[in-house]
TrEMBL record:
<dbReference type="GO" id="GO:0005654">
    <property type="term" value="C:nucleoplasm"/>
</dbReference>
<dbReference type="GO" id="GO:0006401">
    <property type="term" value="P:RNA catabolic process"/>
</dbReference>
<dbReference type="InterPro" id="IPR019024">
    <property type="entry name" value="RNase_H2_suB_wHTH"/>
</dbReference>
<feature type="compositionally biased region" description="Basic and acidic residues">
    <location>
        <begin position="258"/>
        <end position="271"/>
    </location>
</feature>
<dbReference type="InterPro" id="IPR041195">
    <property type="entry name" value="Rnh202_N"/>
</dbReference>
<keyword id="KW-0539">Nucleus</keyword>
<feature type="domain" description="Ribonuclease H2 subunit B wHTH">
    <location>
        <begin position="85"/>
        <end position="168"/>
    </location>
</feature>
<feature type="domain" description="Rnh202 triple barrel">
    <location>
        <begin position="26"/>
        <end position="82"/>
    </location>
</feature>
<dbReference type="InterPro" id="IPR040456">
    <property type="entry name" value="RNase_H2_suB"/>
</dbReference>
<dbReference type="Pfam" id="PF17745">
    <property type="entry name" value="Ydr279_N"/>
</dbReference>
<protein>
    <recommendedName>
        <fullName>Ribonuclease H2 subunit B</fullName>
    </recommendedName>
</protein>
<comment type="function">
    <text>Non catalytic subunit of RNase H2, an endonuclease that specifically degrades the RNA of RNA:DNA hybrids. Participates in DNA replication, possibly by mediating the removal of lagging-strand Okazaki fragment RNA primers during DNA replication. Mediates the excision of single ribonucleotides from DNA:RNA duplexes.</text>
</comment>
<dbReference type="GO" id="GO:0032299">
    <property type="term" value="C:ribonuclease H2 complex"/>
</dbReference>
<feature type="region of interest" description="Disordered">
    <location>
        <begin position="227"/>
        <end position="279"/>
    </location>
</feature>
<dbReference type="Pfam" id="PF09468">
    <property type="entry name" value="RNase_H2-Ydr279"/>
</dbReference>
<feature type="compositionally biased region" description="Polar residues">
    <location>
        <begin position="227"/>
        <end position="242"/>
    </location>
</feature>
Length: 279
């Protein structure tokens, strides 16, 4: 079944795909937990890459799709996301850490089994390859057992900080005039959108000697609830510009519900009727 089967309304989605990959480039929508809030969120799995969905909407706009007009001019975009962010919460919970005890090694199939979220089963191959960077693992026969390692997680987060710092400076020359602490605050704020406050966001701030207020704790922002009970619900995130030019996200909820296009008309028919009336 194609990923768009069951969708009641036409939508425009722009996604990246590796042309050299041999997988199914039609993609598949997965309902997964958001790594920070735990809310049900839609992701796109295409050619073995996990991508997050974002929604953009202008005040006025429509799409011409073949001979028809799609009244809703909103645009969904899918961009790659590091699967470690998405899988980190369940690996943390699965080890059952208690105090100084590092926790237990668990089989991968046990870790990614989440009730009411069968989409995680599709990430088995991705999890096995990507989570080794933040986990200790043992191999018994053909079976691998994983246990999250706090030191490796911190090293991975610090690597993300350095990568994002370099990227921001390249994308925006204004960052060259900003202090190191200001740049770090922006970087940590962005990463904080994908990290649970306790323990990872706090651990990262403490290591960089930033308090969570300076790093702009995005968890204090109001997040609108979005109905994700049906497979067709995208539940993407909307990018907004704050007054201090920092990028933040919140769950998307349009101010006005898009109308179901039950009366879509063929453009050819519209012009045909107009020409007949003019005779």
């Amino acid at each position: 079944m194609a990923w768009y089967d069951g969708l009641e309304e036409t939508r425009v989605l722009v996604a990246s795909s590796d042309s050299s990959a041999t997988g199914d480039d039609t993609g598949r929508l997965l309902q997964l937990r958001h790594p920070k809030t735990g809310d049900s969120t839609s992701y796109l799995l295409i050619n073995g890459d996990l991508q997050e969905l974002n929604w953009f909407k202008q005040s006025y706009g429509s799409w011409f799709m073949g001979d028809y007009i799609c009244e809703d001019g909103g645009l969904y975009t899918a961009t790659p996301v590091d699967p470690v962010f998405i899988l980190l919460p369940m690996f943390d919970q699965a080890r059952m850490k208690n105090g100084n005890d590092p926790g237990k090694f668990r089989q991968l199939d046990e870790i990614i089994y989440i009730h009411d979220y069968p989409g995680y089963r599709c990430l088995s191959t991705i999890a096995e390859s990507s989570m080794q960077i933040v986990c200790d693992f043992k191999e018994i026969g053909s079976t691998k057992f994983f246990r999250l390692n706090d030191s490796k997680v911190l090293a991975w987060m610090l690597c993300k900080v350095q990568q994002l710092k370099q990227t921001l400076v390249k994308l925006d020359k204004n960052y060259a005039a900003r202090s190191e602490k200001e740049i770090l605050a922006d970087v940590v704020m962005i990463l904080g959108e994908y990290l649970a406050d306790d323990p990872w966001y706090k651990v990262l701030c403490d290591n960089l000697r930033l308090n969570m207020v300076e790093a702009v704790d995005v968890s204090d922002m109001k997040i609108d609830s979005v109905d994700t009970s049906t497979p067709s619900s995208f539940n993407p995130t909307v990018q907004e510009q704050t007054t201090n030019d920092k990028r933040v996200t919140r769950s998307a909820k349009p101010n006005k519900k898009a109308k179901v296009e039950t009366n879509s008309h063929s453009i050819k028919d519209m012009f045909s009727r107009a020409s007949r009336r003019g005779k």
